[in-house]
Amino acid sequence: MQNTYEQDAFKKTKKIYLAAGCFWGAQAYFKLVRGVVDTRVAYANGISDNTDYYRIKQTDHAETLMIEYNPHVVHLAELLDRFYSIIDATSLNKQGNDRGRQYRVGIYWEPGDTQTEKIVRLSHELLNEELNGRSVIELNPLENLVYAEDYHQDYLDKNPQGYCHINIAQVNDLLYPGKQQVNEAHLKETLDELSYQVTQDDATERPFSHPYNDLDEEGVYVDIVSGQPLFSSLDKFDAGCGWPSFTKTITTDALNYLEDDSLNMKRIEVRGSDSNSHQGHVFTDGPHSKGGLRYCINGAALRFVPKSAMTEAGYSRLLPYLLENV
């Protein structure tokens, strides 16, 4: 079941501008990402505030996608990670079969938005480390934005057979799958009795019984079964219910959502998207100012990785998710 528990009551949106080569495919891809509320293709960061499709070579604009998103549903760090997944960050002025400065890759933020810039620079720094310093992604404040002609907007919706160098189906791939394979024998050997009962038999721990309920340290919470990242400490709050509670998942694909009619109640169960391990439930009585959701999670289903240990544990790429995104 798809997550339909996204509140409309509090939607403070933000914008990011991504140059990913031909903007047709980038728009088709990001329109499918949860939390993205609007997209428009445009020309950005040229030398003039007046251009069009036939003059962008002369004005040095890059084909760019404006993404408006709800930060209470999707973190900017996820949008950037998805951007990296659909481009070749080491290819200068060329993506797919398209060549020229107008197809350069870039990340642009609205002038004065220092928090967005902070996330962008940390995210790109970590990517560039993985690429041994070979990234050619342009990082700059937004300048001279000109929205593209109407016929370019939602182009692949209108022309399904149009050229696209981006594999749009990649939107269904897990950004951060678990670090270990899940098998019954291994779980019985490695999990304690409570964690096994919670994750495999859908049990529930006693309220106020797990140390994670009171933990307020910076870091990430991962699936105890597979190691898949599920939550950031940034989104943790004290709900007073006795279980660790979060306002959103660390990435939009971290959990699967299922209807649960057990115990004569109608609830939405959440399970790890790669391990299928039971985590808990999601409710719509969370903080209004953070989007209105409350993920009520069993501490026994989680493993906490503190910020100081994330790099050694192989979770350094998740450090930008600990930065405030509103």
Care to describe what's here?
The protein has 7 helices and 17 strands. By secondary structure, it is an alpha+beta fold. A 6-stranded mixed beta sheet has the order 7-6-1-3-2-8, with helices on one face. The protein has a 6-stranded antiparallel beta sheet with strand order 11-12-16-15-14-13. A 3-stranded antiparallel beta sheet has the order 10-9-17, with no helix packed on it. The longest helix has 17 residues, at 114-130. The two termini are 28 Å apart.
Present the secondary structure layout.
Elements: E1 14-20, H1 23-30, E2 36-44, H2 56-59, E3 62-69, H3 76-86, E4 94-95, E5 98-99, E6 105-109, H4 114-130, E7 138-141, E8 146-147, H5 155-158, H6 184-190, H7 193-201, E9 219-223, E10 229-232, E11 236-237, E12 245-246, E13 255-260, E14 267-272, E15 278-283, E16 294-297, E17 302-306
DSSP strand content:
15-25%
- Note the main sheet: 6 strands, mixed
Give the strand order, joined by hyphens, for the main sheet.
7-6-1-3-2-8
Helix content: 10-25%
Q: Please give the number of β-strands.
A: 17
**Rg (CA only):** 21 Å
Structural class of the helix and strand makeup?
alpha+beta
So what's the oligomer here? single chain
Please state the overall shape, judged from the principal axes of the Cα atoms.
Answer: elongated
Helix/strand order: EHEHEHEEEHEEHHHEEEEEEEEE
Secondary structure tally, helices:
7
What is the distance, rounded to the nearest whole angstrom, between the alpha carbons of the first and last residues?
A: 28 Å
| Average pLDDT | 95
Which residue ranges are poorly predicted, with pLDDT under 50 across at least 5 consecutive positions? none
